[in-house]
């Protein structure tokens, strides 16, 4: 398995030229890096005007590895080839490194870049990325991988310290400024050298402003050495190391890399709908920074949020009066760590009455609104306290808990709520304080604990009776001034006291069922299932030419091909495909086919857009400006992988897979709209932000302002 690393942007608040002077002092050896024994310059190139300087070195490293492993490998030192390409005109340094030792068994590639900060030309940015691929290593592949990752991460941490050390050394020598490169009046001849001399640091000189401007505005030179072009990022698409520490907390280099790589993947597949970094980090933490697992669960959560418009629940949904009067829970200041504090008097709450009066769905929606409010409060507290706060503390008072709370429908509603919250709000619970647990509590705990994640269970603190008042109790986590009055504290708590819900407010099972259906069908999106050999198709009739068809869909499962067709005549009335050959129904979405099997492409209908292959987890938005009136068919088709060309005989795996129809099922969630061309101001601008964005989870929702004559698809 290939291990990859991507760093955040690290910012030095010093000019590029001064950073380069400090960087050059690392060679030929650096005492601050014990494993870096020595280096030899094997090739060097300098352009005639001195703007381009390329140095290739052979570096000798003493890897901290077990002596037995070194003896088996037959080496004491490991050699790397490092190529530094300095472009003084563009003010960039690109560093490429690869291993020379065991290059046929282990492949290590690293790329680093120093460049000017895009918003402050007197600051310098640094980024690095690397990959490790161990093909074979005498049966010690896993051991070598661990050693390599350990050595690499330890050196990453030292990188900024080393530069700052040499900056201080330069300052002690009186060098606080290095002039920028300017075109020489007389171009010196180029020189090739293989010497090992350490380049001298330029002395501080005064450069006239006109010459400085001329040097900055001149055209860039080509690089005979093949040095890569500079790639300077913007603050919008890259993460700064200082920002991570301030708003996300202290992360290890590998954790930072996981966050950046997952964020980049989301930028590529979910244009304009990127969740906030705190939310991405929560999913990574919940999956122990396994990118594949975090990506899968987060995509499912984003689809769920979009389908049920959870992002707008605080602005569009008003809790029923019954909840406001009898739900004994509410927000109450914060704990000693600055986390928002939520108080729930579960023992005083009539769960049976609330379920009978409101139904399971209304209670679930209310809990979701509490979690959304918690996310907001975490952001506010992060700003107030000046440190990252990404979770809240929940205080649950169980005084009054009895067998009435173990009513089966109530427990069922509780379990479903736990399941939904665990899947969509991971790592939001910082601590759970359970107070005054009665004897019946172990019964309830036995029922709900299997549905709670192990990491979440470790955050539970349970106190029986008045134990919370003793050592290790409530005062360790909450300031005395804000302990609620019902817990013998000094602070008046405005959380409703709960009580029995009047039976006059109870509703029949039929009323609750209709209400539940209404709550969760309030969505503009439709779901559909796509099977191999059974695409899903929808019909759009266009009366006026130059109308605009827009779409927004998410691929929830499998890979699909998206097509748009035009026909002058209407297809037969749609028939839901039952897939009788497989006897499969599709409870998660319908499957409608419109194009008759006897129709021929080019005669009965035509393709108006090139097919678009969409991978699982991708979010696709686009538009098509119609040229003719008639009938347009949007089709989502199962994407089959190309067959193996090595043999014409079917493989056993393929034969077994063909018997498993579930492996040939895809799911999409889509929304379409037709607009007049006079109302169209660019792709997807007709769709309100509530239709396609994540307002609460996205720091900024962007949409394309371009309008194509035929179509535009952004992923």
From TrEMBL:
Pfam families: CRAL_TRIO, CRAL_TRIO_N, PRELI. This is SEC14-like protein 1 isoform X1. Residues 319-495 form the CRAL-TRIO domain. SMART domains: CRAL_TRIO_N (SM01100), SEC14 (SM00516). Residues 3-175 form the PRELI/MSF1 domain. Residues 215-235 are annotated as: Disordered. SUPFAM superfamilies: CRAL/TRIO domain, CRAL/TRIO N-terminal domain, Supernatant protein factor (SPF), C-terminal domain. Residues 521-674 form the GOLD domain. PROSITE patterns: CRAL_TRIO (PS50191), GOLD (PS50866), PRELI_MSF1 (PS50904). InterPro entries: CRAL-TRIO_dom, CRAL-TRIO_dom_sf, CRAL/TRIO_N_dom, CRAL/TRIO_N_dom_sf, GOLD_dom, GOLD_dom_sf, PRELI/MSF1_dom, SEC14/CRAL-TRIO_domain.
